[in-house]
Each structure stands twice: as C-alpha cells, then as structure tokens.
Amino acid sequence: MKTTYLLLLLIIFSSCKDDISNEKFRNENYVFYQENGKSGKWQKINPELEIKLPKSFSTYFFSNGKRYVELEVIDSFPNRILKFYNKEDKLIRTTTFKSDSVFKTVYENGYYKGYHSNLGLLKSEGQIENEMFQGKWKFYRKDGETIKQIIEYVDDTYHGTRIDFWENGKKRDSTSYINGKLMGKAIHYYETGALEEINFLNDNKAHGKSIRYHPNGKLQAECTYWNGKKMDTCKFYYENGVLKAVDIIKLDTISLSSTWVTHRYLDNGNLEKILEMKDGVPNGKAKLFYENGKLAQEFNIQNNIKNGKVNVYYETGELQYTGFSKNNLLDGKIKHFDKSGKLIKTVIGENGVAIDSILH
C-alpha cells in the first residue's frame, strides 16, 4: 500500500552531523533518522517519497526546533508508533498503527493543540480530560487560521452546539446534540450566507416543522415531520414562487406507515399529475395532464407499476383509447376512438405487442 504522510517522508541521499541536538538541522526540513542497530543521522525530508522504512526511530521538528513527532517503526512501516508534540515540546498524542491501520490513540490530559504538519499550521485545539475530548473544540482548515468547525463535547461525545463553516468563513450549519444525537433546532446556510433550511430533530431524525429556501430567498419547501416521516401537508415551490407540489399525508404515528395524495404542478401553474402514494411509492390512482391542463392519462398503479385499467385522452380532452395494463405493458383489448367518440379500431395486445387489429 502506498502511504503519503504529511512531511514525515525522508530520502536517504544526504546526511549531516550525527547529533540530534544540532540546532542547524532541528527544523521542518530535516529528520533525525536512526535505523535499528545503527548510528543516527540527519536527513533531508522528501515529501514525494513512498515510505518503506525498516525497524527504526525518526524524529521530526517544528521550525522552532521543538519536536513535532517521533516515529518508531516496530518491525516494518505498517506497524508503528507515533508520538506527537506541541510547539512547547509537550507530548499531546500517541497513535499506534497495526497493519497500517490505527489500532489505538491516546491523548494527554490538558489543553491540546494539534497541527496539520511540522509546518506548525493549527489543525485543532481544545481540552482533554481523562484522555477524552471535553468542552468546546475548534478545528481549522489547512491554512491553520480559517475555522472549519466548532464542536462541544462531553466525554468524547458530541453534546451541545456544533457549528460548521464554509471555506469562505461564512457559517454553513448550526446543529445541537445531546449525548451524540441530533436534537432540537438545526439551521443551514448557503455559501453566500443566505438562509437555506430550518428544521427540528429528535434522536437524529427530522421531527417537527421544516422550512427550506431557494438561494434567492424565496420559499422552496415547508413540511412537518414525525420521527423522520412526512405528515399532514407539505408544499413545494419553484424559484419564482409558483407552487410546484402539494403532498397531503396521513401518517400512522405508531407504525410510521403513511398514505398520501401528491399534486404536481408545472411552472405555469397548471396541474401536471396527481398520484396516490403509500410509504413514498406510487400506489393507487394516477392522473397525468397536458401542459394546457387537460387530462392526458388515468390509470391504476401498484408499487410504481401500471396494473389495471388505462384511459388515454387527446390533448383536446376527448378519450383516445382505453384498455388494460399488466406490469406496465398494455395487454388484451385496446379500444381506439376518434374525437367524436366513435370506436374506430380494437387492437389486441399481448405483453405490450399488438398481435391483431380490428377496424370498425
């Protein structure tokens, strides 16, 4: 497996005075490397190198000369121990790898400051008590200054407010947790800073009123939820404010099974379709409409499959043909009419294929 490890990569092509206390080399550009059974030596860091280290001990440094990390390879690189330090040379974290996967991480108690690399750009900071995250923590992007997240913890668990930020520094989300679960009000924002959504959660599920906005600030959707399921009336809107859909939902709050009727509209305001649904899947009667608002089709649907009687209409509203559908395919006698209502032919279909036709 090829492993890239930020600035902890070295190349053995040049070495310097074999003294780890040599201040000339105690910086972000050098590593003091000691292979098992051999003397230690300074080596230039190569960020492009693929690591294949034998049993060894390496020490990396910040630009101020303090240790950043000590890397001990146990027998081969996939099995290793890394001890991380802060800029005051205090041990803050020990991570053990087995077969190139994290086996265990131990944090030292006290105020923690972790870095993206030995360049010293801040990655995270917060309080460690009993080897666990406690209180308010801040997490930073790779520049070490722009805040990515602010999270409140109790005993390593989300508990309190979590705020996420866009790369431009604007707030992205504000959510609340109780014992690691999303609870209460959640607010989401577009990258521009405009409000995107407000909802309420209970036990990680939407529960209560939910309102969503288009980027232009106009209402996009408003729904009510019960334990993650839609209930009552949900409305959806186009960016210009025209009604896009209405769902009228009957929810059994015990079984969480639901039935509803959904109305979908075109952006000109005309009705596009009416569907009966069960648990989010089309089940029951369905009607489709032309752009001019005239009825185009009506049929029965079971688990999103057409089964039963089908009527299809001309764009002017007259019946064009009627028949039966089986697994989404016309089957049996299909009667065709002209616009005056006169029967003009009967087509015999089998699994969607016409096998005979009778003219009238």
Automatic annotation (TrEMBL):
It comes from Pseudotamlana haliotis. It holds the Pfam family MORN_2. It comes from the Bacteria. SUPFAM superfamilies: Histone H3 K4-specific methyltransferase SET7/9 N-terminal domain. Coiled coil: none annotated. Gene3D superfamilies: 3.90.930.1, Histone H3 K4-specific methyltransferase SET7/9 N-terminal domain (2.20.110.10). This is Toxin-antitoxin system YwqK family antitoxin.
